[in-house]
Amino acid sequence: MVSTVFLLLVLLLVCGAAGTHDHKSKNASHLAGIEFPEHPSFNAVTSSATTGCSLPNSKKSNPSQDEGFDNRDDEEEEMEGGGVGGDVKQTVKLDLKRRSARREKEKESVVESKMRDLARIQTLYRRMTENKNQNRVSRLKKEQSKPQAAPAAAAPKSSGSLLSGQLIATLESGVSLGSGEYFMDVFVGTPPKHFSLILDTGSDLNWIQCEPCYDCFEQNGPHYDPAQSSSYRNIGCHDPRCPLVSSPDPPQPCKAENQTCPYYYWYGDSSNTTGDFALETFTVNLTMPSGKPEFRKVENVMFGCGHWNRGLFHGAAGLLGLGRGALSFSSQLQSLYGHSFSYCLVDRDSDANISSKLIFGEDKDLLSRPDLNFTTLVAGKENPVDTFYYVQIKSIVVGGEVVDIPEDVWQFAPNGAGGTIIDSGTTLSYFAEPAYQVIKDAFMAKVKGLPVVKDFPVLEPCYNVTGVEQPDLPDFGIVFSDGAVWNFPVENYFIEAVPRELVCLAILGTPRSALSIIGNYQQQNFHILYDTKNSRLGYAPTKCSEV
User: Fold this and answer.
1) Residue 542 class from Cβ within 10 Å (0-12 exposed, 13-18 middle, 19+ buried)?
2) Catalytic site positions
3) How far is CA 478 from CA 4, 96, 398, 426, 528, in A?
């Protein structure tokens, strides 16, 4: 009942999407850059004045000032110009720092996480059933008599000769902000400015709130201003890369030769971003074998410069996409680090000084581990360039027994929906009905001796564990169709809703034919490897604070 009420609330929220209209934009620079050195503060990105799209009545934010990364003379001396260096793939490692959780707000955080998750699930469902992925492959199929793939993106190039070592940045948990997502610090532009972006394996487009910001959500620090970056460059409306991004709906025709390429990207719960599709240079902070940090520029990185942005982004400056499509940060940098990346997320209650890790490139230490398991990444239905990372579930195990769930629950529906994805942008895990009900009933049947608490919102079942040192809770695991098994520790599927007093099953349901999602809460303390070249997902139990 509570789930239904929240779903209705979310449906009401979805009506607030922004519209678009034309405006002009400057091509006031070459290529700007992102940088990932360690930095303690948040800082945000802004964009240039005139653009190729606009929205009605806007409200300009008044961000606080934090220039953060302006005075870097010594480091900039280390940034050397040049062409793409060799075929050697770099390994890029990023620190993912968690913010300390405010436990007294755990209940509110769980409620808000579910509301946002439900809106996100609804959006993902719409993308699949309406064939409206951010890479626009399906749209092109509708508009043309023959299927045509989106044009290939030009590979970014490095300003150094041979890139090697580890890229280090900060990724924090948003628990203290009431968010279940993870944030990564980046540096953008020339000179580099510091921003915090949400990390999302379920999205492709990288985007940042830009000046002039006509209608923007509140963020920590100033917006990115392309007029202050000597390397910013707009992508034109006629540029072959323009069709890679979703245009406003209905698509706006090019009205001038110098018109910029507009984009419109939506997430659900009225969250969306609209602005100019552009190029920037990412400045990366590499930790060399000697331990000395060095900085290198990566040019021609495609991103969205958002002038109209709405939604629950909890102080972030924008979003960094790690999906499978051509626009994602991971896909664009494949020429530098290869076709794999991995992360290890520390648990929600970790100290603020403990960092998670994000690694671009082959991690030999991880690959050599005997407890590293793999399952196959499967393709989405009739979608050759899908955003999402699909896995194929065969069965669920609760308390050592396979529960009775029809196998067709895990299959793709005729309308393109269904299936199971692993997603860093969704907090909890969700299983399509009737799988969720069967899983919940199995837990309730196997938990003995703990009083059931029925008045906690959203999650069910919940148990009173006051005075119980180690509650006896059933095991939980996923069996995949290729025979791989993923067993989880109890803290990954039971959430401590009230410290030392109340625990709840951190799994929820979605309607039948909707997709199932393995969220970031269930991924805690596992080293997760996305190997797109070999179409496989790896996972190894790990104390992520020690990676």
Assistant:
1) buried
2) 200, 423
3) 27, 26, 9, 18, 15
pLDDT of residue 284 exceeding 70: no
End-to-end CA distance of the chain: 42
As given in the structure block, the two tokens for residue 522 are 């269930």
Q: What percent of the chain has pLDDT over 90?
A: 40
Structural contact between residues 392 and 410, judged by C-beta atoms closer than 8 angstroms: yes
Beta carbons of 433 and 509 less than 8 angstroms apart: yes
Rounded Cα–Cα distance for residues 171 and 341 (Å) = 15
Report the C-alpha gap between 317 and 224 in whole angstroms: 8
> CB–CB of 313/219 below 8 Å?
yes
DSSP state of 176: G
Partnered with residue 536 across adjacent β-strands are 376, 531
Q: What is the pLDDT of residue 76?
A: 40
Is residue 366 a contact partner of residue 527, using CB atoms and an 8 Å limit? yes
Q: 3-state DSSP call for residue 149? A: coil
pLDDT value at position 79?
39
Query: Residue 27: which pLDDT band, with cuts at 50, 70 and 90?
Result: very low
Element (H, E) at 441: helix 435-446
**173-176 contacts, C-beta under 8 A, 24 or more apart:** 173/98, 173/99, 173/101, 173/345, 173/346, 173/348, 173/350, 173/356, 174/99, 174/198, 174/314, 174/316, 175/98, 175/99, 175/100, 175/101, 175/102, 175/109, 175/348, 176/99, 176/100, 176/101, 176/102
Extended strands (E) in 311-451: 318-321, 340-344, 355-360, 373-378, 390-391, 393-398, 401-402, 420-422, 429-432
Q: Which two tokens stand for residue 267?
A: 């997430």
Q: Give residue-wise pLDDT tens across range 358-415.
A: 888 888 889 999 999 999 999 865 554 478 999 999 999 999 999 999 989 999 877 7
194-219 per-position pLDDT tens digit: 888 888 998 899 999 999 999 999 99
